[in-house]
Amino acid sequence: MINQLIRKAELFADNQIQIENSKLKTNCAVKWRNIFSKKLSELVVKECADAADMAYNARCKYAGDYIIEHMEIATDEGAASWRVKTDIEENK
Question: Cα 53 to chain center, whole Å?
Fold first, then answer.
């Protein structure tokens, strides 16, 4: 899932820079990174919001776990184990 969103953001940034480069004729590496980061953030937030809506409609008790699974983050260990692992890593 996240790889698909990254690719969409890359294509969006590439397209934006191509349009701007033809007008400005400048090096746009920093601008590309900023466009990419903003677009990727938007795509991730939208996907999470969509997953939260699905979880709500399905009356899931743990919407956060539903979002983690929807985003294909914790495919090996499951959402609950992944949360524990990341909490431990963040608190080191």
Answer: 17
Q: Which residue has the tokens 């979002």?
A: 67
User: Against a cut of 0.90, is the pTM above it?
Assistant: no
Locate 86 and state its tokens.
């990341």
Give the Cα-Cα-Cα angle 59, 60, 65 (nearest 5 degrees).
Answer: 155
Q: Which tens digits make up the pLDDT trace of 21-34?
A: 555 555 677 888 89
Q: Determine the Cα–Cα distance for residues 48 and 54; give it in Å rounded to an integer.
A: 10
- The count of other CB atoms within 10 Å of the CB of residue 79 is 19
Question: What is the biggest distance separating any 2 CA atoms in the chain, rounded to whole angstroms?
Answer: 53
pLDDT score of 24: 54
